[in-house]
Amino acid sequence: MNKKHTGLMRLSRATVYSVQGIRAAWRHEEACRQEIVLGALAIAVACWLDIDAISRLLLILPVILVAVVELLNSAIEALIDRVSPERHPLAGRAKDMGSAAVLMAIVLAATSWLTLLWHHYG
Fold it and tell me: Which residues are listed for a divalent metal cation binding in this entry (predicted)?
């Protein structure tokens, strides 16, 4: 009999799957590697700056959002490539929309950084 995992076992398995997903993105997606490296640097700078906790959080959260959206975009692209390697207008549209979501997250992060840094140091 195959029981569903619950409680700590479910949480443990979910964590393992999440780590596998991050590793896969790092291994197969150059954009993910670039954004993770730049994001880690940005978070380090945010922690180094002499600013209040709320401002620090407002610098870090959009950087994490970029990584989240990039992971989702990479998942969409991988699924589309798995379903059919041939070009199709709907597949292209889905990939373009995922890419647009990443761009919007990057614009949000850049705007947050510029606004907060200008407010504190400008």
Answer: 29, 77
Annotated binding residue 30 = no
Quote the pTM value. 0.87
Active site residues: 70
Q: Specify if 75 maps to a domain.
A: yes
Q: At 88, which CATH number?
A: 1.10.287.3610
For 22, residues 6+ apart whose C-beta sits below 8 A from its C-beta are: 71
According to the model, what pLDDT value does residue 1 have? 47
| Residue 3 marked in a binding site | no
Q: How many domains does the chain have?
A: 1
In contact, 74 and 32? CB cutoff 8 Å: yes
Q: What pLDDT is attached to residue 113?
A: 97
Is 12 annotated as a binding-site member?
Answer: no
62 part of a folded domain: yes
> If the chain, 122 residues long, is cut into consecutive pieces of 10 residues, what is the mean pLDDT of each piece?
76 94 94 94 96 96 97 95 88 95 98 95 85
